[in-house]
């Protein structure tokens, strides 16, 4: 990991301002979907207030957010417990994608991965047949990746004396994986993935996968989410199944880089400005984990001619603190 990062004074002061005056956003396990010149943000809701499920916010600039103007729900809810959806508790880690005019939301509930759909980005997202993607065992943190040949893959976390990333081919029509293709991505191998600040079984989670120049890039978080060293790294492969080679520059998001504890579990996306960004969560404060706060940071992509891969780093001086618009 990098040496201790000296955070810019003004930004540091802004980050310490009382949450009630700045109306920060408290979504964890965050994702951002981009469409029609607008950004749409959802994630694991902080706190216990309001219905269980997922709410959606929109923004033009990534900085100021509001419930979508066209939303039929005053809270911006796009999926709600009990509304033709699987799950009774633990609604975590959503992802939105679109295929042939249908919007899909994959998420975790009851420690199972789930797929729901809607004809509108703003929902409601529901299931024709209520149930999980693969009920044979517990699995969380779903990310559905579409390859350039049209094949879908489900990346998720399964439990085996720890949290490990797995991949399997996914049938979008049936909403199920092909069990014979299920494969673990990699093990815990690097010091940054297991720091002593919060002892736990091996944990690797929060996957995002992209493809560039026939290489696959898997971004993931490591350490327990309550660990101040919760962080983000990435690995590269020639196949959706691996074998994966972890970057020597890992982690690319960590408290020593962005200046805040527990920085991880988000999603990579391309902005309206064609800039890459990573949206993630941090701990509530230096001595409190939850409710976790949302952050967004620009990402620099650079081609390494010698290695034949892209490398990634963040613009740590340009972290965005998203806030709610004043009513």
TrEMBL record:
Molecular function GO labels: hydrolase activity
Keywords associated with the record: Carbohydrate metabolism, Glycosidase, Hydrolase, Polysaccharide degradation, Signal, Xylan degradation
Transmembrane segments: none
UniProt keyword Signal, yes or no: yes
Signal sequence region: 1-19
Domain of life where this protein originates: Bacteria
Family recorded in the similarity comment: Belongs to the glycosyl hydrolase 43 family.
Protein's UniProt name: Glycoside hydrolase family 43 protein
Protein source organism: Nibrella viscosa
Lineage, uppermost ranks: Bacteria, Pseudomonadati, Bacteroidota, Cytophagia, Cytophagales
């Amino acid at each position: 990991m990098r040496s201790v990062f000296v955070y810019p004074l003004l930004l540091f002061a802004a980050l310490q301002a009382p949450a009630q005056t700045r109306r920060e956003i408290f979504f964890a396990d965050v994702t951002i979907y981009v469409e029609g010149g607008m950004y749409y943000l959802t994630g694991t809701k902080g706190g216990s207030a309001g219905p269980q499920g997922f709410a959606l916010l929109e923004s033009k600039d990534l900085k100021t957010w509001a419930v979508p103007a066209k939303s039929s729900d005053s809270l911006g809810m796009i999926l709600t417990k009990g509304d033709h959806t699987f799950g009774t508790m633990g609604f975590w880690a959503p992802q939105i994608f679109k295929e042939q005019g249908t919007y899909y939301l994959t998420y975790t509930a009851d420690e199972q991965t789930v797929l729901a759909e809607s004809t509108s980005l703003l929902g409601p997202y529901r299931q024709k047949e209520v149930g999980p993607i693969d009920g044979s065992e517990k699995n969380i943190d779903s990310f559905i990746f579409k390859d350039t040949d049209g094949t879908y893959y489900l990346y998720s976390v399964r439990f085996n004396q720890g949290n490990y990333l797995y991949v399997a081919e996914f049938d979008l029509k049936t909403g199920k994986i092909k069990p014979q293709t299920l494969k673990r991505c990699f093990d815990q191998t690097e010091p940054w993935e297991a720091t002593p600040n919060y002892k736990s079984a091996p944990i690797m989670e929060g996957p995002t996968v992209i493809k560039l120049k026939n290489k696959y890039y898997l971004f993931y978080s490591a350490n327990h989410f309550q660990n101040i060293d919760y962080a983000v790294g990435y690995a590269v492969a020639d196949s959706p199944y691996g074998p994966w080679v972890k970057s020597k520059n890992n982690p690319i998001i960590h408290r020593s880089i962005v200046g805040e504890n527990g920085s991880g579990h988000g999603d990579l996306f391309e902005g309206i400005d064609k800039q890459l960004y990573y949206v993630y969560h941090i701990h509530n404060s230096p001595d409190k984990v939850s409710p976790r706060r949302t952050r967004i940071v620009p990402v620099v992509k650079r081609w390494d001619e010698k290695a034949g891969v892209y490398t990634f780093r963040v613009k740590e001086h340009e972290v965005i603190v998203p806030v709610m618009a004043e009513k």
